[in-house]
Write a structure and sequence with these properties.
Length: 165
């Protein structure tokens, strides 16, 4: 298999993983805390629901691109040059989505989607405390995602550096 295709897969995977890490980090540290400064709970709730739906789609795209390209680079590499960091990084990236959601739901004993649906159902009657809890929950979730994706990104950068690609 031509090494050019493998190098392109590694490059695209690394860039996508960096973007995924950046999205989760900026959400956890900048965007979500600023929602708590909005003047009304209705505004904060509608902004949170918009932000969470758009973030879910973008993160899903980036996660799938990263997982596909890095796993493809692993599979397309000659057996002598198959480095396990590609496999580990693609697994960490995949886990950063549904794995984190499952772990947090298991830890809290609740279903995050149910809470999101409750916020949607309360269109006209927004409680500031419930919105604050939803923002804090999403902030914690995105922080965990940023940590998992950051570990995967560091592993990928060190792996590519050691790989010489």
């Amino acid at each position: 298999m031509p090494s050019g295709i493998i190098s392109v897969c590694k490059f695209v995977g690394t860039i996508s993983l960096g973007l995924l890490t950046g999205v989760s980090t900026s959400l956890a540290t900048l965007t979500l805390p600023s929602l708590l400064t909005l003047p009304t709970a209705v505004t904060a709730r509608s902004t949170l629901s918009y932000l969470s739906s758009k973030t879910r789609v973008l993160s899903s795209y980036l996660r799938h691109i990263t997982t596909f390209t890095l796993f493809s680079a692993y599979l397309l590499s000659p057996r002598r040059y198959r480095h396990p960091y590609l496999l580990y990084t693609s697994i960490f990236t995949f886990i950063s989505g549904p794995g984190v959601d499952y772990a947090i739901a298991y830890r809290e004993g609740t279903n995050e989607r149910r809470i999101g649906l409750e916020l949607e159902a309360q269109r006209d009657d927004a409680n500031g405390e419930q919105v604050r809890q939803a923002v804090e929950r999403m902030r914690f979730t995105e922080g965990v995602r940023a940590t998992v994706a950051g570990v995967a990104f560091a592993m990928e950068v060190v792996g590519i550096w050691g790989d010489g690609a």
